[in-house]
Amino acid sequence: MTETVYTSSDDTQVMSERVQLLAASIRKEFERMIGIYGENAVKQLTPLVVGVLENLEQSFQERQEKDVELDLLREDNEQLMTQYEREKQLRKGAELVMKHCLGLDDTFVRNTAMQSS
Predict the structure, then answer these.
(1) Scanning 21, 36, 93, 107, which has its CA 20 to 30 A from the CA of 50?
(2) Residue 99 and residue 96: Cα distance in Å, rounded?
(3) H/E element, 13
(4) How many folded domains does the chain comprise?
């Protein structure tokens, strides 16, 4: 999706292709209505439509930001799950080593007790 830069009186903004196409279609319809009914037919409607298009554009931008945020959170989640699985495997290994050491310790104690007797 491409973006077009347009300039308003107070700042420069980027308009998404979707909103740009919609605005162009509405403009053509307004021009048709002006040709048939005169400029007064759309005079009061134009600011309302512009406001709706601006709100739509803002919604698209917010959605895009949320999508980026969601992608980042998914990546974080994947990294955390990988780290969790790695730590789980390390913990299992440590438990096996601990059991083995306790078994060796018990064997040593028994052997020492038998030698003392």
Answers:
(1) 36
(2) 5
(3) strand 12-16
(4) 1
Alpha-carbon span 95 to 101, nearest angstrom: 10
Q: Which is nearest to 27 in space by CA: 14, 1, 45, 11?
A: 45
Question: Letter for the amino acid at 51?
Answer: G
pTM: predicted TM-score of the whole model, two decimal places: 0.60
For residues 25 and 4, give the distance between their C-alpha atoms in angstroms, rounded to a whole number. Answer: 16
- Only one residue has tokens 């048939």, namely 36
Query: Which range of residues forms the domain containing residue 36?
Result: 3-116
Residues 43-87: tens digit of each pLDDT? 999 999 999 999 999 999 999 999 999 999 999 999 999 999 999
Instruction: Round to whole Å and give the CA distance between 34 and 12.
Output: 29
Count of residues in the chain: 117
**pLDDT on residue 102:** 77
Rg (CA), the chain: 35
Contact in structure between 57 and 15 (CB atoms under 8 Å): yes
How far, in Å, CA of 5 to CA of 112, rounded? 85
